[in-house]
Design a protein that fits this description.
This protein is of the alpha/beta class. It has a single domain, classed as Rossmann fold, CATH 3.40.50. 36% of the residues lie in helices and 18% in strands. Strands 3-2-1-4-5-6-7-8 form an 8-stranded mixed beta sheet, with helices on both faces. The longest helix has 20 residues.
Length: 256
Amino acid sequence: MDDSQLLRYSRHILLNEIGIEGQQRILEGRALIIGAGGLGSPVALYLGSAGVGHITLVDDDVVDVTNLQRQIAHTMARVGQAKTASASTAIAAINPGVKVTGIVARADATLLDALVPQADVVLDCCDNFATRQAINAACVKHRKPLVSGAAIRFDGQISVYDLRDAASPCYACVFPPDTSFEETRCATMGVLAPLVGIIGAMQAAEALKLLSGAGKSLAGRLQMLDGLTMQWDEVLVPRNAACGVCGPTGQQRDLV
């Protein structure tokens, strides 16, 4: 780190759990963010401000005026732009030293199989179940830690799925791919604006802990927030030995 970086990141360096070594790991880190909307906005801004060396943003949408109620990386001036380009501009305005790669595409299995191996941490900030399962499958396949967040109406949840830890479940252990439920989205159900900020900020914190080596991650714990009462509940989530994704009959068998 040069003098300007020592000054910029001094508040991290002052933390014994991070220090110069941990901040250096952040500067050398590579984060893959899937989704540049409500959750992806605070995630991208916080990881950028913290100095994550290379951030890859994946989103196939453009900025719409209805996004601006909660998607804080975007502005009126950038309505109509690709969300990845808009978020890249926002990061550069805070920290021009961070390299950002924006990919305007839907995160399908082929794209994820190419991008996940290059990342040190993957952040699921998307808004649909099928993409979440595809992200998880790629993270299981390539043994990459996944920080997953979700928010709808007044309800939020967050956890870390990290198969580098033998006791950690994958996303499919907790939410099996064959689960039948009604897909809910902000466009039809609504969402409290700061809720995505709360969950997104926590996702960024978990990612920075993973990159720097500080503290203990949320792996094995699912935290759920009721925004109407501001009450948190935590559920311990063990690994499912019969999981079709990370279990002996799933992709995991090809990795051992």
